[in-house]
Design brief:
Number of strands: 0
Distance between the termini: 21 Å
Helix content: 40-55%
Shape: elongated
Bound molecules: zinc ion
Number of helices: 5
Largest sheet: none
Oligomer: single chain
Radius of gyration: 16 Å
Order of helices and strands: HHHHH
Structural class: mainly alpha
């Protein structure tokens, strides 16, 4: 899975925000064609990059108030990441942490049906 795929899933499933689409953008259309954000202001909206702290940090804060946060921690424990202390190392690394998070979110979705 590429970081871009990870970013898209986490934006939609965890932040529950629009993954802005520029596929049909032209010089005359510089706003997101899905949510139309930026249409009135002319601002171009960039999608998050969770391999960077400026985007990953707020995500990390947000997930700690999610109902599934403790489940996420428990799954990491079951995966053997907690006893060795590797969970913190993973969580504190934006690229590895966002990948662990997306795997958890996808597993959870598969389980829920
Ligand atoms: Zn959008």
């Amino acid at each position: 899975m590429t970081q871009n795929e990870v970013d898209k899933i986490l934006t939609e499933k965890v932040l529950r925000e629009c993954w802005h689409s520029w596929e049909l953008a032209t010089p005359d259309v510089e706003y997101c064609l899905k949510c139309r954000k930026g249409r009135d202001t002319g601002d171009i909206y960039i999608n998050p990059d969770f391999s960077k702290w400026e985007d990953y940090g707020p995500l990390l804060e947000k997930i700690q108030s999610e109902t599934w946060w403790e489940d996420f921690v428990a799954v990491q424990w079951d995966n053997g990441l907690m006893p060795e202390g590797n969970f913190l190392g993973t969580l504190l690394n934006p690229a590895r942490g966002s990948l662990a998070l997306v795997e958890f979110v996808k597993d959870r979705e598969d389980t829920d049906g």
